[in-house]
Structure formats: C-alpha cells, structure tokens
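Q: Got a minute? One more chain.
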Amino acid sequence: MSPHRWQLPPLDDDRPTIAAHALALAALHGPGPWPDGGAPVPGTSSSRSRPHAKDRRPDPAPLISDTVMDGIRTHHLAAGDAPAPTVLPDLLEHVLRVPPSAEEFRRLRDAAAQPRHPADTLARRLRGRDLPADRLREVAVRLAGHGTRRQEVATGIALLGIGGDRRDRELLLLLGTLEDLTLVAAGALHRSQPDPDRAVYDLARRVEGWGRIDAVHHLRGTTDPEIRGWLLREGYRNTVMDEYLAHLAATTGDLRAALAPGSIDEPLLAGAGGILLALCTGGPSADITHYGDGPHVIDRYLVHAGNHPPNLGRVGVVGTLRRFIAGETVWSGAGPRADAMPLVSGGAGQARRRLRRPDRQDGLARPRPPCAAQRRSRRLPAGGVGR
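A: Always. Here it is, folded:
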C-alpha cells in the first residue's frame, strides 16, 4: 500500500454480513415491517441458538434479546448507566490518519464490536479531534455495510450519524428496518439527513415493535402536518405497549386541535380512542395525569363517538372512559394532574352529561326504531306504488 495514499485494506471476512441479511429480507418481504423485526440477525444474541458444528450442541437462547435490552436501557435506565467507549476513539483516529494495514483495521473492527458504544458518548469522545470527514464516512460505511457482528454494524451506523450525509439514507433505512438496529439508525438519520423528521418517519413506518418506539421518540415536537396526523391515527401503535407512545402522540400530534372540527374521519376517531385508552390505562410512560388537555379531549371524543356507528373497539374505549369519569380510576398516575384525577370538573362534567343522554348507550348512538313511514315502505311490493 502506498504510504502517500490513504485507503482501507481489502475486505477479508467471508462471514455473512448483516446488510446482506437485510437485503434478503427486503427482497422477500418488501421495505418492512419484516417478520419478527428481521430476527434472527447474524452476529446477535438471537442468532446464537444455532449449532456451530456437527457435534456441538447449540448455545442456549438468551433470556432477553438485544432489541429488548436496548429498549430497557433507553426507556428505563438513566443515560449515565451505559458504558463509554474506551480504546475505540483512539484506534479510529489512528486509522483515519495513517493508511491502515489489514491487522490494524481488524483491531478497529474488534473494538467496534465490543458492547456497546452509545452514539452520543462516542460523538463527544470524537469531538475536537479534527478528523477527516471523508475518511470517517468511508470507515463508517465499511463497518455498517460490511460488518458481520451486530455491535460492529451499530458502531458504523453511529459514525454515519456523525460523518454521514444524504448518500447514506438508503443504507440507514435498510439496516434500521432490522429492529435490532432501529435505535441507533433512527438517531443517525436524525443527525445526518437534511430532512431529519421525514427520514425518521420513513423508518418508523417500517418497524412495529421496540423499533417503532425508538423511532417515534425522535419525532417528538415535529411540526410536519403529515407526520402529526400519522402519529394520531397509527404512529403510536406498536407490538410492545401503546402506552409508551400515547402521550407523545397526543401532544406532538395536537389531539385537542384534531378533534375540534364538527366531524372527523374514522381512522382519526379510532386512533384517538386508542390513545385515550392507553393514557387511562397508564404504564411505563406519561399517562392521563400528565395530559393537561385530557378532560377536553375526552369530551370531544365522546361527541364524535356518538356520531359514528358503534363497534366493539369503540364500546370498549367508551366503557373505560365511563369508569374513569365515574371515579373508578383505572390508573392512579403520578403526573402533575394526579390530584385532579378522577376528573371532577370542567370537561369531565360535560362528558358525564353526554354519557347520560337517553339517546346514547355507553356514549354511542343507539339505533333508532324505524318511523311509521319507514315501516310502511318496507311493506310495499317490489314494483312500488300503483301496482
């Protein structure tokens, strides 16, 4: 290798890459969501239960997958609980300054594959080192696009968040559709793309479990009307717990304003019902006691529910709201409005009156008996009047 020209050594790993696994899933199932979130991913704990040799028993399957552990760390542990990278920043700087040998780049890959390098911490460690941006991006693409171990690829994705650009969008979307990697890919898209909210929105619609939760958290506070409408109709839904995203959807999507018109579409009504159900049920995230617009939104929901044909889902939501308004608090909550729950004033009083209206059953429109003219018309012969 010429000492005057910087370049990476040739590829020397014949193991299957994680990017190839993602490409195969995309060819079979489209852009996503993929079955089981793309699991098992090569080089992850979820793929270690397969035997590695003819006479060897498979390793036991992990109790908790990498995806779930990332969700727990991200949403239930303090930021300081994650370990900081140690040798990786120094190895990376050396590789970027001097054309690396195959052995030097192998050491960098091994360091990148060590558990885990939070993107924010890695960015802080690299800040101020004045690293060549084009070389940083080339190393990041090599790790992300040709890595064979989950954390190696995740490190490459994190580096693309630091030194990547619009050219890396499709690679980040492809790898991020693997729910093992959505957390870091969503952050990289948000940092590196000229339209960060739209980029993360594209990814969020490709995943449905922890990946959906991780991606949607990057959309908090968006002002994009399409994204806000999607959050209210379906964006908060996920296969883990809707409670993780219900409050974010209600506030960022401005559910109060969305329910203000005299009529709304069925998907919005269904989405609003799911959000209110999750907020009243409570769980690991902000709940109805953190939602200042709660009384008004409940009242508007009941108005719209009474104007739409009933279905089982809506009956369940209205039944939950009835119990909640009556003081049978479904979730005690710990938010700033906890002392005001169960709802006893303002919008709650209006909601109570709506639930007690004689033409409503559980807040939904009762089918009305046919009038005399309708009954007579049903007895007319097929040919109509005059025969």
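A: Strands lie at 360-361, 364-365.
Q: Perfect, thanks.
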